[in-house]
Write the structure tokens for this entry.
Amino acid sequence: MKLVIVGTGYVGLVTGACFAEFGHSVTCIDKDEKRLEILKSGKCPFFEPGMDELLDKHINKTKLISFKSNIKNNLENSDIIFITVGTPIKRLEEETDLSAVWQVAEEIADNIKKYCLVVTKSTVPVGTTREIKKIILGKVDQKLFDIVSNPEFLREGSAINDFIRPDRVIIGTENKKSENIMKELYRPLFLKETPIVATSIETSEIIKYASNSFLATKIAFINEVADLCEVVGADVQQVAHAMGIDKRIGSKFLNAGPGFGGSCFPKDVKAFASTAKKKNIDLSIINAVNKSNQDRIIKISDKIISNIENKSTICFLGLSFKPNTDDVRDSTSMKIASKLFEKGFNIQCYDPEAMNNAKKENSNLVFFNSAYDACEGASAIIIGTEWNEFRALNFKKISKILKEKIIFDLRNIYTPEDLNELGFKYYGTGK
Ligand code: UGA
């Protein structure tokens, strides 16, 4: 099939590369010429395991992926056009900014010449795909297109695997014709018995927000349980483990920590609640999840501050919002590090991949080339992100260069026993 993907951000690029892996021919479109130059050279503009190799394969060897800077002249012969542009949250209104989506819909409408599907893969509030249809119908006969909602469930750091071995694929359509075309597109997954769930467009749009919001709820829930565990001397990791064995609950997304971050959960819980509010529905649980997660940054910063006597230098390990990504958008590590800096601490930090992005966001932090360099002279270590390289640190070596042996293990990657033995004061999360 001939696919056009508009927007070469995270979702667009992973989608394009993986569809090329399925054997489809993919044209990726983006207005950002600098980004296109990087892409044309076969490199991925962000860190995502496996993406450099996949792009190199399909740009240089199979030649299934090409890059273009405009929609005009590039929709010809395309079977499916994916909209994968960004849908950020507006700061004040806490509503989704759909301006890029509307603009792309207009441009698509100007250039459709033969029957094709127009698919929203960007995360959009319920009703958006139908609005896109209205825009296109303003210029194009209904016979020449159908609209589809096909949300993505890609986690940064494991996006290729999530695309190629998904738990499910959601296809929201208005008719059988478009449903069958989408099923043909995903045939390699269908053959592997991946559940393909065909729904209406509105149902599909809600599935995306309900899924992300539910996972965010699980995290916020276990984080509050962790607070109680700390006060009464219980261990949240054991609580979560035992809860998770119950198949009705499940063990995933029950790891207590500094709160959920990234470009999706924080934005999506706000957008879900604000979309519902417009329809006079109060998603009170989701509102509470949002508040609980926002309050957590202050709670954790206060806990750190109140347990460090020597208020000088802190070593902060891990800045990305989770491991295996260089993304620091809405990263809890960045927020806590900034709070501590505001309180007068000097922050020495290190992250395996996210330092360039972190520098752009907060130039007050001091950056080092290794975890050990960042520990030099510090009064405490904070582990903010559970990168594998922090899981076996040489604490004997670290003991010699620290000023005081205090560790805040926000992601619970060590046990108090491990570190108390080496003379550290250990503070985990919920234990
Ligand atoms: C999330 C969803 O997991 C994807 O399915 C979805 O497609 C994506 O958003 C999106 O909407 O595009 P992602 O933001 O990459 O993916 O990251 P997650 O692995 O879901 O983690 C989100 C945050 O929750 C991170 O800050 C992580 O550290 C935190 N988290 C996760 C916890 O604190 N505890 C957990 O048990 C799991």
